[in-house]
Every structure is written in structure tokens, then in C-alpha cells.
Amino acid sequence: MNITQILFWILSVLTLGGAIMVITSKNVIHSILFLIITFFAISGHYVLLNAQFLAIVNIIVYAGAIMVLFLFVVMLMNLNSAAEPQRNKYLLYGGTIAGSSLLLVLVAALKQSADTSQLVQMKTGDIGLVSNLGKALFTNYVFPFEISSVLFLSAMVGAVIISKQER
Amino acid sequence: MEISNYIILATALFAIGVIGVLTRRNSIIIFMCVELMLNAANLLLVAFSQMHNLRLGKYYPTLASDAQIFVFFSMVVAAAEVSVGLAIIVMLYRNTRSVDVNFLNRLKN
């Protein structure tokens, strides 16, 4: 077991443990902080796969922007002490069983497929570097890139219109 | 590292997100679980891109960077989605003084 595999298992445990703590913790603030841990672990996976651009973008966009937005909204609404009212026990068990069945079915279906033992390129390869992805983004994908700015503009206008206090 | 490890990891992450959406009633946590599922799909896309780059990168050098650009655009869409979704949650809180999705039955009667 070399250092890459050890890092993979540590990051996997961190990812799944953080994700489980997100859905089990009572406090919303704690959920958000565990989700930040999960996102950092996923960024670690991207670094391990040598997708450096996506690792940085994941930290900036998810752990930086989106999670701060979540924390801001939760603290704005002063929800951090409000416990969830009347959790339905049957809903809890039913949801857990349904999600576990989904996991079981997906894993069992993938066991049947032929080439699950193909190797993944780790720590090498230069497709995930910023220069290569930047070249691809500004040559082949320049039109979707510009369209995404229009998407951001519409999202911004939409957020302002939705949360505007009507008189 | 074999691809099956990544497949199982991403599937488990996705299933945890599904369980969170089904069991929790707080709309902010449900929203966070949706983000978790999105990230599971992104992680699997990157793992598959590196897998194909190892096998076919000699013949198609731009094959794998296409997948990573796809992940980049999915992150862009996620950022836009979060801003609008949180605005909707703030609106919900302002109308019902709660973020519980059980109170979202106003359209029923």
C-alpha cells in the first residue's frame, strides 16, 4: 500500500464521515461546517487525481462562496438553536432503507459490469492543469463560457427579485 | 487505484445525499444534501476522465479535458442554483417563520 492509496482511503473516510455527520447532526451550523469538511476532502481527491484547476475551483466556489452563503442565511434567520419539530420515525426509517437500497442496487449493478478494474491515472497527466483547461475553455468552449455569464446575470436578477420585500 | 473504488465512493456519497433529502425536514439541510449529490457526480466525472486519459490519452489528447470542463460548468450551474434557492428559502422563512418543508402545503387548499 503506497502513499497514494493511503491518502485515498483517508480522504474517503473524511468525505463519507463528513457527509454522514451532515445529515445526522441536529444543529444546522454544525451541518454546514461538516459539509465544508466534505468539500475540502473532495478537493483533496481532485488533487490526488491531478485535476488541480478543479480542486482550486471547488475550494473557491463551494467552500468559499456557497458555504458562506449558507452560513449567512442560517445566521440571518437565527435558526441555529431551533430544533426540528416532530420528526416522523417511520419517515426516518423509510428514508434510510430507501437510500440504502439505492446504494445496494447501484453497487450490485456495477459489480456486473465488465471493466471496473481499470486503473485511474493518479498524480500524473497534464489534462487537469490550469493552462490546458484554460486553452480548451477559451477555444472550443468559449461560447458556453459566455453563456454561463448570462446565466449568472439571470440568477443574480432572480435572487434579487425573489427576495425583494414587497410592499 | 482502480475505478471501482471511485465508483463505490461516489455512489455512497450520492446515497447519503438521498437519505438526507428523504429523512430531514429542514429545507436548508435538504438543499445541502442536493449539493452533496452534485459533488458525488462531479467526483465520478473527474475519476472517469482520468481513467480514459490513461487508456486513450495518446490518441485523443483533448478527450479528458472535455470532462473536466463539463465539471467546471456543472459547478457554475450549482453556484447560480444556490443563489436562487437560498433566496427562495429566505422568502419561505419570511412567509411562514420556519424553514420546515412540512409547512410548504399552502397550494393544497
Keywords:
heterodimer; A: 167 residues; mainly alpha; Four Helix Bundle (Hemerythrin (Met), subunit A); 74% helix; globular; B: 109 residues; Helix Hairpins; 3 helices; 78% helix; elongated
Describe the structure in your own words.
The complex is a heterodimer of chains A (167) and B (109). Chain A has 167 residues and is mainly α. Chain A folds into two domains: 1-81, NADH-ubiquinone/plastoquinone oxidoreductase chain 6, subunit NuoJ (Four Helix Bundle (Hemerythrin (Met), subunit A), Up-down Bundle), CATH 1.20.120.1200; 125-167. Helices cover 74% and strands 0% of the residues of chain A. Chain A has helices at 3-24, 28-48, 52-77, 89-112, 130-139, 142-162. In chain A, helix 1 runs antiparallel to helix 2 and helix 2 runs antiparallel to helix 3. Chain A is globular. The termini of chain A are far apart. The mean pLDDT of chain A is 86. With 109 residues, chain B is mainly α. Chain B has a single domain (3-102), classed as Helix Hairpins (Orthogonal Bundle). Chain B contains three helices and no strands. Chain B has helices spanning 3-23, 27-56, 63-96. In chain B, helix 1 runs antiparallel to helix 2 and helix 2 (27-56) packs antiparallel against helix 3 (63-96). The termini of chain B are far apart. At the A-B interface, helix 1, helix 2, helix 3, helix 4 and helix 5 of A face helix 1, helix 2 and helix 3 of B.
